[in-house]
Amino acid sequence: MSAAASSSALPSSLTGAANVGGLAAMGKVAFALLVIVGVIFLCAWLIRRWGPGGGSLGQRIKLIAAKAVGTKERVVIVEVEGTWLVLGVTAGGISKLHELPADQAAPAPKGPVGPVGDTFAKRFAAALKQNLGGGGR
């Protein structure tokens, strides 16, 4: 029985060593995968930075505004080298609708339209008075 006991002890010690070796191999594989994913992200960043559409071209074209006018149709304003282009974008293509110098174009006001101290309630009450005939027409 001592021979059987020694043979059964041998596989258990080898199994423990195999578990440590298996974990080390899994760690190496996980590290290699992380390195590969990192290289992929680095290449994607480099292509965006210096590839087609990147670099100086990205600095010369600037999106000013976009408005959907249908399910697949949009009107887009872009600035290209000091000129604003109004473009119609559809599923079938892009067409130029209008062109004007960027110096003459004024962006839409972003703040409230009424006087500075007005609240929405005051402006709404004034609009109601005017529309209902109480506004001194």
Structure description:
The chain has helices at 2-50, 56-60, 120-131; strands at 61-68, 74-80, 83-89, 94-101. The protein is an alpha+beta fold. Among the domains are: 1-51; 60-101. A 4-stranded antiparallel beta sheet has the order 1-2-3-4. The chain is elongated. The model has no long low-confidence stretch (mean pLDDT 76).
Task: Please give the largest β-sheet.
Answer: 4 strands, antiparallel
Order of helices and strands: HHEEEEH
Percent of residues in helices comes to 40-55%
Low-confidence stretches: none
How many helical elements? Answer: 3
Number of E-state strands: 4
Summarize the structure.
With 137 residues, the protein is α+β, with helices and mostly antiparallel strands.
Short descriptors:
137 residues; alpha+beta; four-stranded antiparallel beta sheet
Helix/strand layout:
Blueprint: H1 2-50, H2 56-60, E1 61-68, E2 74-80, E3 83-89, E4 94-101, H3 120-131
Antiparallel strand pairs: 1-2, 2-3, 3-4
